[in-house]
Every structure is written in C-alpha cells, then in structure tokens.
Amino acid sequence: ASNPTIRIGFVSPQTGAMGSFGETDAYALDFIRKHIGAGLDIRGTTYAVEIIERDSQSNANRAAEVAGELILNEEVQIIIPASTTDVTLPVSEQAELNGVPSVSSTAPWQAVIMPRGGDAFEWTYHFFWGLEDIIASFVNMWSSAETNKKVGLLLPRNTDGEVWGSEEFGLPPALRAAGFEVVKPSLFEPRTNDFSAQIAAFKSAGCDILGGLVFPGDLRTAAIQCAQQGFKPKIATIAAGLLFPSAVEALGSLGNGMSTEVWWTPAFPYASTLTGESSAQLAATWEEKTRKQWTQPLGYSHAIWEVVLDTLKRAEDPLDRASVRDALKATDLTTMVGKVKWANGPHPNVSKTPILGGQWRKGEKWPYDLKIVEAKTYPIMEPQAKLEMMSWQG
Amino acid sequence: MSKSFGALRVTQDLSFEVGRGEVFGVLGPNGAGKTTVFNLISGDIAADVGAVVLDGQDMTGIPAFKRAAKGIGRTYQIPRPYTQMSTFENLLVSATFAGQMRGQAAYDHCATTLDECGLGDKANRPAGSLTLLDRKRLELARAMAGKPKLLLLDEIAGGLTDGEAKDLVTLIARLRDRGVTIIWIEHVLHAIMAVADRMMVLSFGEKIAEGKPDAVMRDAEVRRVYMGIEA
Amino acid sequence: MRWVDAIIQGTLLGGLYAQYAIGMSLMFGVMRIVNIAHGDLVVLLALIGISLAAVFGLGPGFLVLLLVPIGALVGWALQRFILNRLVGDDPLPSLIATFGISIALQNAMLAIWSADTRSLDAGALASKSFQIGEMYIGLLPILVFVTAVILTAGLSMVLKGTKFGRALRAAAADRDAATLSGIDTKSIYAKATAVAVGILGIAAVFQATRTTIAPADGGGQLIYAFEAVIIGGMGSIWGAFLGAMVLGIAQVIGSRIDPGWGVLAGHLVFLVVLAWRPQGIMSRK
Amino acid sequence: MTDPHFATVHRHTSSSRIAIGCGLLLVLAIPSMPFWASSGHIRWAVELGCFIAIAQMWNLLAGYGGMVSVGQQAFIGLGGYALFVLVTLFGVDPFLAVPLSVILPALVAAPAYMLLRRLDGPYFAIGTWVLAEVLRLITSNIGAVNAGSGMTLKAMAKYSAHQREIGLTLLVALLLLLTVGGTYLLLRSRLGLALTAMRDDAVAASSQGVNVGRMRFSVYLLAAVGTGLAGAIYFMAQLRISPTSGFDPNWSSICIFIVMVGGIGRLEGPIIGALLYFFATRLFGQYGSAYLVVLGLLTLVVAIRAPTGLWGLMTRLRPWPWFPTGYILTKG
Amino acid sequence: MSEMLLKARALCGGYRDFQALFSIDFDVAKGEAVALVGANGAGKSTLFKTLVGLLPVKSGTLTFNGRDIAAMPAHTLSRQGLALVPEGRRLFKGLTVEDNLRVALDHARTVEPGETVWTLERLYDLFPILAERRRQVVEKLSGGQQQMVAIGRALMAQPKLLLCDEISLGLAPKVIGEIYAMIPSIRATGTAIVIVEQDVSLAQRCADRIYCMLEGRITLTGASSDISREQITEAYFGVKHAVG
Ligand SMILES: Nc1ncnc2c1ncn2[C@@H]1O[C@H](COP(=O)(O)OP(=O)(O)OP(=O)(O)O)[C@@H](O)[C@H]1O
Ligand SMILES: Nc1ncnc2c1ncn2[C@@H]1O[C@H](COP(=O)(O)OP(=O)(O)OP(=O)(O)O)[C@@H](O)[C@H]1O
Ligand SMILES: [Mg+2]
Ligand SMILES: [Mg+2]
Prior knowledge:
By secondary structure, chain A is an alpha/beta fold. Chain A has helices spanning 19-35, 60-73, 85-98, 109-113, 131-143, 159-164, 171-177, 196-205, 216-228, 245-250, 279-290, 297-314, 321-329; strands at 5-12, 40-42, 45-55, 78-81, 102-105, 124-127, 150-154, 181-183, 209-214, 235-240, 259-262, 333-335, 338-340, 350-351, 356-362, 368-374. Chain C has one domain: ABC transporter involved in vitamin B12 uptake, BtuC (Orthogonal Bundle). The interface between A and D is large, with 39 and 37 residues. Chain E: One of its GO terms (molecular function) is ATP hydrolysis activity.
C-alpha cells in the first residue's frame, strides 16, 4: 500500500555565519512535516510527501552541490532555496539548468534576478518586494521627519550590497530622484574593523540620515564607531542588520530608535491558508514554543509552504516537474505575507509582496519591539507609531 | 677568498691550490673557518671576494647545484640525510643529479658505494633511523655516489674506532687512486696523516702552514695553536 | 589633519590586532604551534562571558577577571591533553589538530548558543570619546591599545628575562635537550598556552564590547593576527605588536583612500614587508 | 650474473600493477557514464573527481614539495573565473574554455612564487593565504566580472543535458589522468627523487646537484595549473561563481582534511581521503552542526593518533601500495 | 669500590619495537672516571639515554645516589645531579650561547656548602672563545664551538655524574687535551664522569675503569690498568673481526 511520493528539496543555511536565517526555516519545516504527516490528498489520490532538507553551511558552493544532489540524485519535484542570496542564487541556477521548479523568497527580487542576467526564466520563481519598494518605504519614512535630506549609505561588498548600491537600479539613483543627496563611499568588506573613513565622509557631508544594508556584526562595529566619532544622524535606517531582535539587542542602547524595513509582523492582516492562523497567532505560537521573540522571516518561512502545497494541489500531475512548474506559475494565493501571483509581477518570475517601515523601540515583553511607522507604500494596515529621532544615548 | 658574517671576518685573503688526484688535509682550531671554506667551495654560501677555480673553470656565481654537477661533492660536518628516504635512495639522488647517471648504471654505482662504505645491509632502511655514525658514513657514501672530481670531506673520522678509521683511510686512498681529488678537514690526526699528500692549517681564517704532513706537524706555530703543545 | 587622524585611528586599530597577535606570537612564533582555533577561542570566551554577564549581571571589568582564568584553564587543558602530543619541528600536525578543534568548536558553540549575534553592553564606555580639534578619539579603542601595550611589555619581559621564558624557548628548540636540562617541557608548554589563551580572555571582552560575537566569527581576525606575527618577526613579542600597528595603520590609510581597499591595503603591505624582509622587521637575522 | 655488484631494484609490486590497472579502467569508464549512469551519479563523479584532483595537487605541493599552502583557493577561483570570463565576456565555447582556463592560474602563479619563494614553513602557509585573500578582494572590486555579486554561466543552457554530461565526464577523466597520473609519473621519474630529497633537506639536495629553486617553482606552477583546471571544471558544474565562493578559504580546509585524513606524502592518501570526505558529507551532511563537530573531532583524532592517515594505517596492516614511487634494492 | 653513585642491574631497554640493551650491569662510584667503549651501534648512546630517562627502562633496576630512578620523569634527574652531554650536541637553537648555559643554570642541582660551583665565569675561562661569542645564537657557531657549549651546558647543571657521549667529536687536539686535562679537577670535586671514547688508549689513560659494549651487552669490564688492548679489541668486535 505504498502511496506515490512527492519529493521536495529544501536548502537552508543551518550552520555557519548565516545560521540565524535557518532558524525559522527549521521551525516551519517541523510544522509542515506534522501538518502533512498523513500525506497530501490531491484530487482523490493520497500522496506521501518527503521533504529532503540539506544544510548549505552558509556556503554558496555547498548550496550548489546539495542542489545538484537533490535534483539529480533525489529527483525532487520542486526545490526550495530558503533564505539568503548565497543559497537562492546557486540553487536557482541549478534548478533552471536542470529543469526543476524552484520557489524562493526573502531577498529583494533584483538580487535574485539581476546577478543571473535579468531575463525571464522558465523554472525559477521568486516572491518578495523589490528595491523600488524599499526605496519608496525609506523615502516615506525619511520624509515624515525634519531632516536636511542628506543620506549616507553603508553597503557591503557582496551580492546584496552590489545590488542595493547599483547606480543603475539600486538605491542611489532612486534616492536622488526623490530629492535626497546621497553620500556613497565605496562598498566595505564584510567584517571590517574600521569604519572611520566612511564616518569621516558622512560627517564632512553633514548627513542627517544613515541608510544602507549592513549585517548585524558590522552594524554594531559601525554604530559604536559613529557614536565615538561624534557622528549622530537623526535617523538610522538599516536593512538586513536589524531584522533579528538579537541583533538589535546586541546593539545595546544604540539600537533604540533605529529603523528598518519590515517584511512581516504579527500585525499583518493575513492568515495562513494552511491552518487559518492569523499572523499574530503564528508569532504567539513561535514565542511559546521557542521562548524567543518572533522574527520577520517567520512569516515567509511559513508562506513558502503555503505556496508549495497550493501548487502541488493544483498540479495536474504532482509527480511531473513540468506540470508542477505550470501550477506554480499560475499561483494566485493570499498567504501569510500577502498575495502571491506571478502573473502580476514586474518580471515574469517575480511576484511582489508588501513592505512596511518599522522602528525598534524599548519594549515590554521583549527588550525591543518593532513598531510599524510607515505603511504608505503598501497601505495594508495603519502605522502603529510615528518615526522618532534617534537619541544616540550610549 | 674572503667571507664575513656581519662584523665577524671568517676567512681572509685565503688562497690555496690542490692538485689533481691529491689528498689535501685541512686542519685548524675550532672556529678557524674550515667549514666555511667548504661552504664557499661548494657554493652553499657566496664569497665576498675571491674566486674558486675548478679544472680551470671559474666557479664564481655558479649556484651550488651546478657546482655539484660539475664534480664538486661534499659531506656535512653535521650530517644532513634525507631522513624519510631510504639509504639507497639517498645515494640515488646524488648519483642522478650530481653524477648524472641513470637507470641501471646509477643503481649499480649506488649499491657498490653502499657496500664500500659499510652500509650495504642498511640499504632499504630510512635514513632517519640511522645512528650518528651511520649518518656520517651516509654523508660520505652520498658524496661518493655523485662521482665527484673533487670531494670535500668535513670531519668524517670522528667517533670511529681504530679499525674503522683504518678502513676509512684505505677507502680514501682507493678513491684517490681512482683519480678523485680530496680535501679533507679532520681533527683525528692519525687518520689524516696516514693518507694526506699535503696539508694546510688555518687559524682565524688565515693560513698558518702548508706543506707535507710531517713538516706541517713539526711547525712550531701549528703545534702551539692547534695541538696545544708549547715548545 | 585627515591623515593624522587616519594614523591615530590606525594605531588604535592596531591595538586590537595586537591583543590577538601577542598570544599567537607566543604559540606560533615561539612554540611553532599554528593554532587555527585561536579566533574560535576568543569567540568561546566571549560567549561564556556574555552568558555569565546575562545570568549574574556582571560588568565588563569583572568579566575580565573571570575570563582570564577560564581562558588560562582552557589553554592549559588544550596543551596538556592535545597539543603536547603534537609539537615538534613540523608545524603541520598542530595545524591539522587545531583545524579540527576549530571546526568542532564552532559547531558545538552553534549548537549551544545558536547563530544569534550577541554582545556585551558596556554602556557609555563604548561610545565615549575625547575630542581634540576636529578629531575624536574613542575611549574604548584607547583602552584596547593601552591594554595591548601593557600585555606586550609584560609578556616580552617574561619571555626574555625570566627563567620561565628561557625554559620555554629552550623547550621549543629541543625538547629532549630541555628535559636533560631539568625542564618539564610538557608543563612549560601547558603554562605558555595558558598564558596565550588567558590573554584572549581580555581580547574576548573587548571584542564583545566593540562589535558582536557569533559562533562563526572566529576566523575573521585570525589572518590579521598571523600577519602581525610574521611582519614583526617570529618569536618577537614586540615585533608582533609592531606588526599589528603596521597592519592597523595600513588598513585605515587604505580605506581613507577608498573604503573598499582597506583590508586589501593591509594585505598588500604584508606582502611588501615579506618581499623586503621575509624574516620580519624586528628579527635580527 | 657474474658481476657481484649487479644491483636489482624493485619498483612495482603486484598490488601496484592491479591498482594502477583498475585505476586506469575506472578513469576511462567515467566518460562512458552518460550512456549508462544516472545524472545524479555523474554529478557525483564530477564533484568527487574535482576533490581528488584538488587534494592531490595540495598533496604534491605540501606532501612532496614541502610547501604547506592554505591558499590553494587562489587557483581554484582563478581557474573558475577564467572560465566564466572566457565564456561570458569573450563568447568562447565552455568546453573549449576549460583547458584555456589554466593559463590564468599559471600566469598568476609565476609572479606569486617569486614573492613567496623566500618563505618557508608556516611563513609560506600564511603568505599563500594572504595572497588568496588579495585575489578575492581584487576580484570583488572588478566591475567587469560583476564585482562582489559574481557571475553566472548561462552559455551551458545551449547544450542538452546529455551533451553537458558527456563534456563534463570527459573533462573530469582528463583531469584525473593529468593530476593523479601526472603526479605519479612525476614522482617516479628522476624529478621525484629530487622532490623528495629537497623536502627532507633542501640545502643538502642542492649540494647534491638538485636545482631546488627550479623544482619548487615547477611544483608550485604545476599545482596551480592542476588546481585551476579542477576549479574550472567544478564551477562549470556549479554554474555560478562569486568571489566568496571561488576564493573560499574553505577549499583549503577541504584539502587539509582530505589529505591529512587520507595520508600525506603518499599518492594513495588523497584518493582515500576524498572518498571518505565526499561520502561522509553526502551521507551525514544533513545532521548540521553535529556532523561538523564529528568531522572536526575526527580530524583531531587523526592528527594525534594516526599522523600517517588512513593510508598509513592500511599499509601497517597490509603493505600493498597502489602507486609505488620508491626504490627497493633487493640484491647488490 | 667505594660508595656507589649509579647502579644499574640487569637493565634492558631500547626503542619502541627494538630492544637495544640486554641485561646491562653498570656501576659508577663517586668521583670515579669510567670509560665506555664499543663499536658503532653497540648501544652506548642508548645506554646513556636510558640512564638519564630519555628512554624507558624496560626491566631491571636503576638507582642513583641510593634512589630508584627507573621510573622517575627525566626532567627531575638533572636536579639530582645527573647530566649528559648528548651525542650530536642538541643545543637550543635560536638561543644565545649564554642563554643556553643559563637554562641549565636555572634548573641546576642545588650545590651543598663547600662544593665547588660551576659558574659562567669559570666556564668562559675554560673556553675563552665562548665568552667572545656569548651573545651569538648557537647555530652560527662552528661545530667545535657548539660542542664546547654542549659540555658547558652539562657542567652548568652542577652534576654529580657527568655522562659524555663522544665528547671529543669535532674538537681540535688542543681542546681535547684541555678537556681531558680538566677531568681530574672535575673529579676532585666529587663528580663522577663516564666518557664514551673511541681512542682506546686515551680512554685507558684517563679512566679508572672501562666497560666494553658489543651488540647491546657489556662484554668486558675491569680496571683500565688491568685490561690489555687485545682484550678490548676482542670485546669490541666479538670474534668476527680481529684487527691486524
Ligand atoms: N652563519 C654564520 N653566521 C655568523 N658566524 C658564523 C656563521 N657560520 C660560521 N660562523 C663563525 O665563523 C667561524 C668559522 O666557522 P667554521 O664553521 O668555518 O669553523 P670550523 O673551522 O669548521 O670549526 P670546527 O673545527 O669547530 O668545525 C666561527 O667562529 C663561527 O662562529
Ligand atoms: N631512534 C632509534 N630507533 C630505533 N633504533 C635505534 C634508534 N637509535 C639507535 N637505534 C639502534 O640502537 C642500536 C644502538 O645504537 P646506539 O646509538 O646506542 O649505538 P652507539 O653505541 O651509540 O653507536 P655509535 O658509536 O654509532 O654512536 C643500534 O642498532 C641502532 O641502530
Ligand atoms: Mg667545521
Ligand atoms: Mg652513539
């Protein structure tokens, strides 16, 4: 009595430097395995579902190796590169060449499409917001406060930094167009120990706003050096580095009042198509089970499974890669993070989801809470507070 | 030839000649500069001034490995075997590169040389496992394996029993009879006296005596500086 | 002014590298132990310190007092039970062993502490600075630098002028002969590694104060420490200190020219020094 | 045999004849895989082949040349980038570009050696590491190769899966022949003697007529070329390269692990080590940190208990060499 | 014989998988000079290394100054007055001449009142060239100079028993003469000496007793004045070769 088995490949960074991204992935994986324990009923046939997970060790080569293995040896029907461009890019590349549908998220779509040439793809699909959205969100946030409209940008020398800083489609041209003056020193090497050159440049230009994309380790180094060097911008809005509460806590009191993009919060007005749980409930369950504060990737870690299961259910033959691909392409589903529909996208392989702006404030239950301060770009909810100026109180 | 290490002048304007097929002994107090002279001849270190001429060919500026191929073979006072290679392979290296032999000819030559030096039964042992004395024998054997025209021997008789020293002297005499020129640094006087055609005594990098062994040994200066005999 | 500032910031950055480099100079330069896990030990000590701080509410000053003995103990055990079996002329075995330790340690820490970034909150200390004209000089970097100077001076004195230092150098040169001279080489080595890792207890506190700590961070500063030791000349503690300064200044000046080239400038200066004086600037050879 | 000094020297054994025969057959079987094996196994063969080649080159450099490098990723990255640049920027056919890709590693290795040649032991190791970092940093600052974000090999799409597999397996077979077979022949030749001698004592070797400088240079260059070729093939299979993946210090870790666990200074070592590493990673990789902790501890145990590696342990049980390079005098 | 300083009975030893010493009985009395002779590979150095604890005692007893030292850690023996001038010098490379000597001084036996003490000055008097080179790292010394440092280092340990392996190797006749001339004065302070010496007549002249070794066994022992050259030669080589 063996049911036909659908195999799903799942690659995420569980060990290594990007390990924190893997945390919610593993959590969602746990959930989904229980959820479909008895198998997936698709138009009368019960399929067993086997999810084969692989650790990328935070290493792009390893990600490509395991993707090849999942596709060629394990012969999965669909592959999910979860979290970080170091996983998404190599895995998507393998999927595209070997003809396996792949669905990814949690990176601005340009970072997944542009380094691969920017054309349309046949097999690889991505849902997330884009740089145009984060720029709009940042601009809205910054415009809501009194500043001299001078922005200093800190960006690292890696795929993300290159895309964000691109003079073609990145932050600088868009910000200029929105009336900001941009100071952009060249990209810094990740885990650098000294930001005095950048800070000197920002200081001499008199920037009121510090913006950019910085990972947590660099952010603390930079923030402390800003304070030491007497560079105290009114607003500090940093992508990526302020995603996790642990990173904000690591900043100490300097983290108070820093602002960031918000992919998802418990306040999102969406519910799960799998369980009917609201966003708030999803976060509450997580906090109860892990005794840790909710994190933004949680919503996406969940939503990606909504998309995958929905796709499989609609697929004509869930065991056939091409028909899975066709179903994926036809997705129209309102998930935990918003609507996913590739037909709408700015690019055939991209479906856009909402982004909001948030500010970290001293919290009650947890040391810091993320308050939504900007919801103009995607007016899916009311802002929870108004952006306040940074105090730089060490 | 002159050579200084920083402020320390080791050899100074030293000149000497060795005839073909001669056994030339070099004596001198410790630190006189004997080993340094060998290093200059073999090219391990470069002279500040002066020249080494082998068979009418100026060796100045020629690197050590080429000098070896041109027929200068040497032993080291403190043995330097290739510890992880077998004794036989140690010899094979110099037979191949210094002696420019190949294949069977090289094998035969090395096997013979091992026997001559009393290492025949240790041919396949890793050189690192040899005792100090065997390592010294290996030094000699390895130098011989390179079929040198000029053989530089740095204290190879130390620690030998009388009998062994006699065997060694016989071996060296045999080498000379084959036409090999030998310069031999030695403190074991009875050994070197037994075979040397001429000798030179160095002190503080300068030559204080040169000539027939007996004459040199009778020299008052030599007796005082080197033997410690006040006369 | 801009360049004076760069040199000052570079020197202070050098202080950070020196804290890593002097312990390494003792192990790498004197004992010829290539310790790949050097950085991971800093992370380990920092994570222990952060956890202690969270549980007992300890300040950084007090943590130093705790972490140095913990580090010393770890170092002692590391040498006694593992590295003592591997020391010799060949640096390869120690390289392999510490490489294995590094991987195991990193992942064990990941399992215990998760991949979260953590840090020590030093309150106002971290962001305080002095203003001289247009220049700002951070208090924390000054503390790092001064500590490095004191450690360097102390360690150098111990190594050059004490019985312990001579015994250690002798044991490093020839273990059997050192034994013959009455030196308990295993215990001397264990003590030396205890000192080297104990120093890392201090570095760990500073590192956790000035940036964040996560289990995978260990390798980050390793290359700089090695570079500093080599630039300075193996075995010379002041050399390692000087090497750290050269590296720090090169990086800061490099990044003033173009922020993308800072780290690269440090490496290039390292290569230039190697080409010019392979034995290091402080070596008398 | 009347001459009492007619020396008999043995080099081959029956085990080596069998092993080399089998090895050759295996290597020659690789290009036939597309006609009978699954795509998954072909991919395994390609990756495993690259690991063996990279490790063997490291073994040549460290185990025989005495130059312990922790910067071989420099040449992996250069080989990979050369391929991507030739294909993407100059439109060269990918399979043709692979052999051409070794030119760049060679061109960089020559001056790099000039810089590194005066260093030995740990100095050399750190020097190579810094050099690799320098290359990574420079690459991530070059706009033409997409700087920090890396490149994609789109041109592979013009071949069918079957064609790609034929091409890749041919290249891997060639790679193994060149790196493993080439190293074996090198070590059996008179140069092998010189190499082993100078590893043990370079000064003595040069006074015995060995041109130590040139030997070292050649070994460094050969290792760079072999490693570069493996890098090009590896990244051809991965389709993407970035400065952090191409010049990843993790490559050195892999080399060290494979060679040390397998057995350094023996040709058999890297092969055994690569097999172990490859299958262990594939079988236990999903256990995340626990697997890596075990891997680390295993390395530690090998360093302490079995410095000659698995091959050393095996030869102690059964001295059956696959690739004998020594000379055994049986009669003389 | 007077008071025994070192006493070995049925001593067996050797390397990991190679036994090199077979049931050795070996005694040295206080202030005595003993010569140990034997062909290359006989096991003289191995015996020395076993006596000072660098190699393990496989069986048999070994006492020094009345104490059982067979199982004591090697590094504790020098404090009890056992010193070795090792074969091949084994100096501390990278350390200066003076630091080499100081290391030994640091861990020297505490001398009893009235005993003569070996000081740096006294040693420099003996080997003036070392005073000149005191700040030089030892690997830059000539072979003979290094041997002097090795001897000096052993003396700095203030030994009661000095074991000298091939002490004259590489030394000029003048220096050898001086060293042998010094032996009585060393002995006068109560220090016993064991020397390995290939020059049998020299050994006979300066030693009270002689031990001959062959293939890991003591084949002959007795007062040096009682033993003839022929006996020694025979003990040296067994019956295989007789030197003509
Ligand atoms: N690399 C070096 N640097 C500095 N001084 C050196 C170096 N090599 C040798 N010397 C010095 O040069 C002098 C001559 O040394 P050399 O080894 O030639 O003496 P030698 O005559 O062979 O003595 P011995 O009989 O003791 O072997 C010695 O005083 C020694 O200290
Ligand atoms: N490290 C070692 N491992 C194994 N065997 C060894 C080792 N060192 C020496 N031997 C062996 O032990 C035996 C005794 O050697 P030892 O060095 O004690 O002789 P010796 O009498 O000192 O000779 P020599 O006059 O050459 O110094 C020899 O057969 C030798 O091959
Ligand atoms: Mg000499
Ligand atoms: Mg001996």
